[in-house]
Design goal:
Elements lengths: L1 H5 L22 E5 L6 H9 L5 E4 L9 H5 L1 E6 L6 H12 L4 E5 L2 H10 L3 E3 L11 H11 L3 H8 L1 H4 L6 H11 L3 E7 L3 H13 L5 E6 L21 E8 L4 H16 L4 E7 L4 H22 L7 H11 L1
Parallel strand pairs: 1-2, 1-3, 3-4, 4-5, 6-7, 6-8, 8-9
């Protein structure tokens, strides 16, 4: 995992190729069907381009939309392994309905089926990394599938501008602060994907419980669960408030007040400014910091950061 993080920026040099490109039905609206690490890139794309007409579907079949709406959208079946059953279900449903469709993955049943049926596809590189650590490849592939040429050019520039090694010491320090606690990541609605990315990395890399919520909703319910003042050092939770430069003024005020309230009650809380959520480099800096932090939490707890044994066990039982 450490090598994957240090080499992460190189993923943005990847030049995706669309096979069966002549059959691609271009659209201006998109549905990305993907699970787990295979929808992270789409989440981050929506953070970067909030006005992009992009629906992320993490379930079986297709989203419950009018037939006309589905026909107007390009369905992107996105599975790193190519064997994710929910994504295969969406692919098959789109294929049966003759919807605009493209597959993205490293291989597996998804790419095999795309080849067999003459469906456009992008076969991404097989990386040593788990899907969550290969989102650079996937991010670039999605931009290519959506024909977002200008955005693709900006993404390629991250190969030289991202410096993962500069964030290593910060991630190590944050891991020490978190220790054995469960992470609770809070953000604005705009930056929900970044908070969720922290959760995924803590779950999969560090094998640790982690939770996510957003402002202002959490101010109307969840924060009341932490109303009790605790003894210093006794908390089972570590609160991380992700703050972008471009937050709404009322959201910034909510963040500041909550940080003060939690601190007064001895809950460990850190506000982390990460730049502008509208800037692609700042988005991926935040992603990299979550990768480093979860890696060092795993190391401190004696966990293998690369593997996800219970997920693999679950998949085998589902396939039986």
């Amino acid at each position: 995992m450490k090598e994957d993080i240090l080499n992460f920026s190189a993923q943005f040099s990847y030049k995706p190729k669309i096979e069966n490109a002549g059959k691609l039905q271009t659209r201006r609206e998109f549905i990305v069907a993907g699970m787990g690490g295979s929808h992270l890139a789409a989440d981050l794309l929506r953070t970067w381009q909030p006005d992009l007409p992009l629906l992320i579907h993490s379930d079986y079949n297709l989203p419950n939309l009018p037939k006309g709406k589905l026909k107007k959208s390009l369905v992107i079946a996105n599975s790193y392994s190519g064997n994710t059953e929910e994504t295969l279900s969406a692919f098959n449903a789109a294929l049966k309905a003759n919807l605009p469709l493209i597959a993205v993955g490293t291989g597996g049943k998804l790419i095999t089926s795309a080849k067999k049926n003459g469906i456009p596809f992008i076969q991404t590189p097989v990386a040593r990394a788990e899907p969550r650590a290969a989102i650079g490849y996937n991010f670039v592939a999605l931009l290519k599938a959506m024909n977002l040429s200008r955005d693709l050019k900006e993404a390629h520039a991250l190969e030289k501008s991202l410096r993962p090694e500069k964030l290593e010491s910060i991630g190590r320090k944050m891991a020490q602060e978190i220790g054995g606690k469960a992470l609770v990541a809070y953000s604005s609605e705009r930056n929900r994907a970044l908070a969720y990315n922290w959760k995924i990395n803590m779950n999969e890399t560090a094998k640790s419980p982690a939770f996510v919520n957003v402002f202002p909703e959490l101010n109307h319910n969840e924060m009341n669960a932490f109303a009790k003042k605790i003894n210093k050092g006794s908390s089972d939770f570590y609160f991380l408030i992700l703050k972008g430069k471009n937050e709404q003024a009322r959201i910034e005020k909510r963040m500041a007040i909550l940080r003060e309230i939690l601190s007064q009650r001895n809950w460990p809380v850190k506000e982390m400014p990460f730049g502008d959520s509208g800037e692609l480099q700042d988005i991926f800096h935040c992603v990299l910091l979550s990768m480093w932090t979860s890696y060092f939490v795993a190391e401190s707890r004696g966990e293998d950061p690369d593997h996800t044994p219970i997920i693999e066990e679950f998949k085998k039982r589902m396939a039986a």
